[in-house]
Amino acid sequence: MRPRLAIVPGDPSGIGPELIAKLLHDEGVRDAADILLVGDAHLWQRGARQAGCPIDLPIIEEEDVTAFDAMAHLDLQTIAPDDVKIAEVTVAGGTSSLRCLDKALDLAQAGMVDGVLFAPFNKAAMTAAGLNAEDEHRYMARYLGFEGYHSEINVLDDLMTTRVTSHIGLKEVAASIDGPGILRAIELAHATLARSGKARPHVAVAALNPHAGDNGKFGREEIDVIAPVVKACQEKQMNVTGPWPSDTVFLKAKRGEVDAVVTMYHDQGQIAIKLMGFERGVTVAGGLPIPVATPAHGTAFDIAGKGIANLGATRQAFDLLVRMIMTEKTQVA
To answer: 48 FRET partner, CA 20 to 30 A, in 90, 207, 218, 255?
Structure first.
């Protein structure tokens, strides 16, 4: 029943290898899951030196992945040691990131591991290396051949946020909001919370306009588009409320009154949740058939190589993956 996690070092130039070295030394981690490190040995060793946390690397071959216990290392050669440039965006770093991620996804898709944890990637480096997608979440869906609905989910402790629109300009947001999109975001939040063990989650839906439109004075999206979707969900016995003014809905979330907030656009939720706990935030690849999570912060080039990276978000991502996988295993059993 123990979860089996593939862990990827993230961008070689950033804080990822250091964070994973610290994670492996954190209390209870090795007791909670079997861990497969997927990546170059010299990257893990570099991270261990940066963190001051030595790690053992028991190397196994890919055909033996299903048989390992506790911790093992699947050694890859994705980047030469001399090509690792701390705190720099490089094509070599992006290539390494993609190759390590691809291998972890291959293992998960083959059923050899239960989920994937990746340390922070650098989108500029990955794009230079051929990412050819809006972000790593869409890249993963395409790589897995997954055509269903999926979206980035942000998690802070017990709170999740999803969004109806994501990486588009603000002038495009209102025209991009429709009933099916809102419903998909609500259902994704509901399903992901259930996947993590929440029996009857409360999903709050944020408004688009100031004061939730003030009965149509500042826009009719709440009346014509958002409220009908909320009502339809309630008629299905889903615990969904809203539309709530976006400047107050996160006060409810902070008080623990809701389990998820569905926002209309990217920064509406991102600013709030990062102010509430940037050092603990987690990003989940919501909707994918494989549980995948990562710390929500970036590669932190400003502190890379200094050994001072905060483990908080990486540990939160690890713990969330363990809960999600154990929930699924329990349901299957």
So the answer is: 90
